[in-house]
């Protein structure tokens, strides 16, 4: 177990203890896919059942963990989520409709100085965007965004998470033919670079597997793994189709647009 894993588990232990000793509902910050997997394994190991993950809407990638005392019950804990998660809605004026991408919205929010784990998903529509945030940071984020020149004419407001307008992610389908499911092979194919350059990307810590930085070129990638290559995009290993006549592996991959 590496240092990051130990830190995640230590924070989880603190949350469990706090919920039990103070008989209160507690929550984490927004978790990466990797952190969530570590926590799920630990919760299963402890046979803890009074918890759930939520990110403001069904299917959210960034989610928080909510732990509640057994005697309060799951329904009571769910009802309390409205006091934990909020949305920030940015409605653009006509002259800037369609102008901003996810990158611009994220860049603007990160100028607040808040850590990325204080912010959940960002859902971008042509004329508006929704940012999932922790309730305690919502007002600060709204006030800060109102002070930014690019949003000076936009309507920015804090909303209940139930008002978030979800948008299904769009993908480009890719069929890759690779010699094996080693990470360096897949990075080479997806980034359109040589194997040696793929190894450089790994050593430079520019490759993430399920939100965890990965430097081991021989790591075996599986179906449903999510890969992010800095500067190249984000991908889901959707399906291993099989092998061609030369024995190479055919993989169906979805790239986020």
Plain-language structure description:
This protein is an alpha+beta fold and 257 residues long. Helices cover 31% and strands 28% of the residues. It folds into 3 domains: 16-82, Ribosomal Protein S8, Chain: A, domain 1; 85-163, Alpha-Beta Plaits (2-Layer Sandwich); 171-256, Roll (Structural Genomics Hypothetical 15.5 Kd Protein In mrcA-pckA Intergenic Region, Chain A). It contains 7 helices and 13 strands. The strands form 3 sheets. Strands 8-13-12-11-9-10 form a 6-stranded antiparallel beta sheet.
Q: Quote the CATH topology of the largest domain.
A: Structural Genomics Hypothetical 15.5 Kd Protein In mrcA-pckA Intergenic Region, Chain A
The main sheet comes to: 6 strands, antiparallel
Number of strand segments: 13
Helix content: 25-40%
CATH class of the largest domain: Alpha Beta
Structural descriptors:
257 residues, alpha+beta, Ribosomal Protein S8, Chain: A, domain 1, Alpha-Beta Plaits, Structural Genomics Hypothetical 15.5 Kd Protein In mrcA-pckA Intergenic Region, Chain A, 3 domains, globular
Secondary structure layout plus pairing:
Blueprint: H1 3-22, E1 26-27, H2 33-46, E2 51-54, E3 64-67, H3 74-79, E4 85-91, H4 102-110, E5 119-124, E6 128-134, H5 135-146, E7 155-160, E8 171-178, H6 183-191, H7 195-203, E9 207-209, E10 212-213, E11 226-229, E12 233-243, E13 249-256
Antiparallel strand pairs: 1-3, 2-3, 4-6, 4-7, 5-6, 8-13, 9-10, 9-11, 11-12, 12-13
């Amino acid at each position: 177990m590496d240092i990051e894993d130990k830190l995640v588990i230590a924070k989880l232990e603190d949350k469990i203890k706090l919920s039990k000793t103070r008989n209160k509902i507690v929550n984490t910050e927004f978790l990466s896919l990797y952190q969530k997997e570590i926590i799920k394994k630990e919760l299963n190991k402890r046979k803890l059942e009074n918890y759930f993950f939520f990110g403001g809407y069904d299917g959210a990638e960034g989610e928080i963990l909510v732990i509640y005392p057994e005697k309060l019950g799951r329904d009571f804990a769910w009802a309390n989520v409205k006091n934990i998660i909020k949305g920030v809605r940015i409605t653009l004026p006509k002259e800037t409709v369609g102008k901003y991408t996810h990158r611009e919205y994220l860049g603007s929010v990160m100028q607040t100085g808040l850590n990325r784990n204080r912010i959940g998903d960002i859902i971008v529509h042509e004329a508006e965007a929704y940012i999932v945030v922790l309730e305690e940071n919502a007002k600060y984020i709204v006030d800060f965004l109102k002070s930014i020149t690019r949003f000076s004419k936009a309507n920015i407001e804090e909303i209940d998470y139930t008002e978030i307008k979800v948008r299904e992610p769009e993908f480009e389908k890719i069929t890759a033919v690779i010699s094996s499911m080693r990470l360096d092979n897949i990075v080479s194919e997806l980034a359109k670079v040589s194997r040696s350059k793929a190894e450089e990307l790994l050593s430079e810590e520019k490759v993430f597997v399920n939100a965890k930085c990965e430097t081991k070129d021989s790591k075996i990638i599986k179906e449903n793994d999510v890969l992010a290559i800095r500067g190249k995009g984000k991908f889901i290993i959707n399906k291993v189709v099989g092998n061609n006549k030369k024995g190479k592996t055919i993989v169906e991959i979805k790239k986020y647009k």
